[in-house]
Amino acid sequence: MYPSGEVFTVIPLGDIVPYLSTVNAVILGVLIAVLLLPILSRTDIYVEVDHRRPKIKAKIVTPREDRIKAALALTSTLASVGVVTTGDVFNFTLFLSLLGMSNMGLIGTTVGDDFALECAFHYGLMCLIASLPLFGGAALILASTGTLSLHELMKLPRGAGGWTLTYGKALLTAGVLGEAGVGPFYAVKVDSFRRIWGRYAFVIHLTTLLTFSRFMEILSLLP
Amino acid sequence: MSASEGFSRLLLSVRRPESMVSAYCLLLAVIAAVGLTHGYHYHRKQLYPRPEPQLQVKSGDPLAPYDRGGIPLRRPGIAVSQYPQFEPSRGWVTSYLTPFTRWLARHSRHCGTTIVSHPGGILDEILYYTRGLDTVLESSIMFVGFVIFSWVVRMKTVTEREMGRRE
User: Fold this and answer.
1) pLDDT tens sequence for chain A (223 residues)
2) Domain limits at A149?
């Protein structure tokens, strides 16, 4: 029995062996709905109203900015789909670093805002540092149990792996924190919801949140 | 300084975007300090054998190098594959070479084995034995990084008016 409910289907796709269970299917549905959101919606118009002086200023996202943000939101969502469905710890970490990278790009590619660029720089620094504990954790899980497949790890008895596996779990948690956990912090820093690219900021928050629910499942799967 | 003033000063210090990086590095340092004091036991199946000189000279030394065996592009080395059921079809490192790399490997002495064909080099060859998607994913991470970097640099260096003239 998997922690995320009954498994509907296991796709024997080479080395990632994705599987879809009850909770993951719901998450996947939400993700695909989010993916459709930037595709179907039109370019936003952002209106600034100054009350002291009667002044109304309208801003439109330039097509150039809109295009790169749509592409990065697509990459982020696809990486998140990979995170949710994959059945392999190492692929989980790889998808997660792709997710962190594209979320960093979503913040960084804001036109005419130096502070957003600075935030993206620090988020990128964070992703860079976090990749060490992330991949180190996956490597320690492999070294202590001899496999990376979640389907195999589930069958191992409790306490297999010992301290090496426990330390690997701690490293993996630190890596997930740095890679995805700080995404909303920087997105809020640049006040992203009230920006003209607010619909893409929604992608950052949702993908990182769903990543955490998936990470909880992996933690409970490990012996 | 009152308590509320100290609290607001603490919040102000966390407010800056670079403070989170420092806090995270502190967390990593604590985790590393905890990890240094413990011993580690590895799964015996995942260890490669050590050849003669290391066995004689430095027996018991954990830093003595391993020997993976095998000849590049001829015979696979000793590696415990993660998914043995896929080994017959994709067990060879050479199965992911592009036509150009295949040509390079055939016509040169030292190129085209692992460094040229894989983005990550030797380490990838060890870990990605029978793991094909990881290589694709890793290069896509690099690709996204380059896309973002080139876009930001282009927006910063080329002015909006010049870009409009070009399009």
Assistant:
1) 677 777 877 776 655 678 888 888 888 888 888 778 767 777 667 777 777 777 777 777 777 788 888 899 889 999 998 898 888 888 899 999 999 999 999 998 887 778 888 899 999 999 999 999 999 999 888 888 887 888 888 888 887 888 899 999 999 999 999 999 888 888 888 877 677 777 788 888 889 988 888 899 899 888 8
2) 7-221
Alpha-carbon dihedral angle through residues A9, A13, A14, A19, given to the nearest 10 degrees: -30
Q: Is residue A1 part of a domain?
A: no
* Nearest beta carbon to residue A126 from set B20, B90, B145: B20
Q: How many domains does chain A have?
A: 1
To the nearest whole angstrom, how far is the Cα of B6 from the nearest Cα of chain A?
Answer: 22
Query: Is A102 contained in some domain?
Result: yes
Task: Give the ipTM.
Answer: 0.85
Please report how many Cα atoms fall inside a 13 Å half-sphere around the Cα of residue A15, on the Cβ side.
25
By Cβ distance, the residue of A126, A140, A146 closest to B21 is A126
Q: Do A164 and B42 touch (CB under 8 A)?
A: yes
Residue A137 lies in a domain: yes
How far is Cα B79 from Cα B81, in angstroms, rounded to an integer?
A: 6
